[in-house]
Amino acid sequence: MKFFVDTADVESIRDLVDGGFVDGVTTTPELISATGRPVDELVAEICEAVEGPVSVDLQAGDCESMVDQGCALSDVAPNVAVKLPMTFEGLRACKVLTGAGRMVNVTLCFTAAQALLATKAGATFVSPFVGRLEDTGQDGLGLVKEIRQIYDNYGYETQILAASIRTAENFAACARIGIDVATAPPDVIRAMIAHELTDKALADHGQDTAAVNITAA
Ligand code: E4P
User: What is its main location (predicted)?
Assistant: First the structure.
């Protein structure tokens, strides 16, 4: 499974890439505008910081305007994945952009039927929103499991990008289901490292460090 980080913070991306924790990035308009930086400049910098795909939203509209915006966006760097909304016009734009060799992430997926249409439109990625479904009391992990089964039934190549992952447990559950990619904020990825027994063992070892004080020759 590939790990993407959901942030527009370049330093945070560099730290996680250097540690080998993440393979790509997802952003949202909110995360980008919180940096206060021009979109093109910021996206170019993020795309240099990570080799894998960097998902960036555009302004929703009709197919033609989204194709124009999508071409401009993916001209910024070869690893840009244009985020398109799950709308009729968004899916039409997806068909055009992926047909022209551009990467597309069809976002805001909340049903298996939507995921079916995304793959028919040639999407590179489809993003089911696990956390937002759970916010409404629905089974977000159940949805990604259902999409996995459907795509496997027919050998569809669209990668399932589980989005809106807000806990380490849900991240691990996506791996168990066999999802292609999961994306989560930096603090969730860092939280995957922590466990109370790890912390306790480290505290216990700490009391004995004087006994094993190894110094370089
Ligand atoms: C990523 O592409 C999504 O926009 C993101 O994971 C959404 O997360 P949220 O539901 O916590 O805002």
Answer: cytoplasm
